[in-house]
Amino acid sequence: MKNSFKEIILDQHHYYAQNLGKAYLGDSLELMKAITPNSINLILTSPPFALTRQKEYGNASAEKYIEWFLPFAYEFKRVLADNGSFIVDLGGAYLRGNPVRSIYQYELLIKLCREVGFFLAQEFYHYNPARLPTPAEWVTIRRIRVKDSVNVVWWLSKTPNPKADNRKVLKPYSQSMKQLLKNGYQAKIRPSGHDISDKFQKNNQGAIPPNLLEIANTESNSAYLRRCKAKGIKPHPARFPTGFAEFFIKFLTDEGDIVLDPFAGSNTTGFVAETWQRRWISCEINQDYVQGSVYRFAE
After folding, report:
1. Per residue in 117-158, pLDDT tens?
2. Other CB atoms closer than 10 Å to residue 298's CB: what's the count?
3. Is residue 46 flagged as an active site residue?
4. What's the rounded Cα separation, in Å, for the pair 241 and 218?
5. Catalytic one among 39, 48, 85, 89?
6. Residues 39, 47, 262, 293: which is the catalytic one?
7. Whether residue 183 is found in the same domain as residue 257
8. Which domain holds residue 182?
9. Do residues 162 and 65 share a domain?
């Protein structure tokens, strides 16, 4: 039986609600303590990254990031269902004053697996072709590095067998694959040693996507931004695209499942969950961002 929201979060007043979810204003580390253990099917979030320069939405330094993040991770594991998944999107950082990278994402991953007890189901890479060339010092001034356009995305799970179905996220076939299906293919062993049998000709209604997600983040005139501007509310400066949330919500959950975003920002996760008939809970500590996120849903 599905858990109701009354059973999941008790004695907490939500900031606003939609048909399938609720947004809460406050520290998610405290809010999650009221969530029933093993009740969340998917945690999908992009927390403040570890950056060498402070941003307005709040972020810890790379040196302190893991220490800051781990208390949240233990709560994530407690509330996650046994077949649930935890998706975390993390941007990279350069070491202060040097053209070399921090490895905090990898150090965090090791801690999450070896200390907290998560399993690494698969690593993904979120490629944003529209990202600006930064950091300017190394990329556009000294010209000694190239544009950083990829975030690492860790797909973690509570057990080795999280719920997932890649048939829900198939990509349209390429033109060459359509021709192959139409004209047929001679089964043979390729030079690499792979045996391409006649099963390769089966029409599976789409291609299995890779773990490189090419999703441009070019939102500039969305309803959310227009409504925030009309109300004089500053929108969240680091929104991830709806396509990113849509991929993992479709891939890892079913209708009626519960999705949690503990660092909700402009609540892209809640909006996409509502669109795809998933229940959702979002937590955000900044009141301006929560107030603005209402306009993702406004008619």
Report:
1. 999 999 999 999 988 888 899 999 999 999 999 999 999 999
2. 9
3. yes
4. 8
5. 89
6. 47
7. no
8. 172-207
9. yes
CA pair distance 93, 101, nearest whole angstrom: 6
Do 150 and 187 sit in the same domain of this protein? no
| Type of residue at 270 | G
CA-wise closest residue to 154 among 121, 195, 202: 121
CATH code for the domain of 114? 3.40.50.150
Residues 117 and 141 reside in one and the same domain: yes
Place of tokens 């929201």: 5
Model confidence over 55-90: pLDDT tens digits?
443 445 566 889 999 999 999 999 999 999 999 999
Active site residue 47: yes
- 3-class DSSP assignment, residue 182: helix
Give pTM, 2 decimals.
0.86
Locate 258 and state its tokens. 């519960």
Name the one residue in this structure whose structure tokens are 């907290």: 116
- Starting from the edge strand earliest in sequence, which strands make up the sheet with 16-17, in order? 16-17, 21-25, 279-284, 258-261, 40-45, 80-90, 150-157, 119-127, 212-214
Is residue 161 classed as helix, strand or coil in its secondary structure? coil
CA terminus-to-terminus distance, the chain: 32
On whether the CB atoms of residues 295 and 223 are closer than 8 A, the answer is: yes
Residue 180 DSSP class: H
What tokens does 15 get? 């900031």
Spot the catalytic one: 46, 85, 266, 282.
Answer: 46
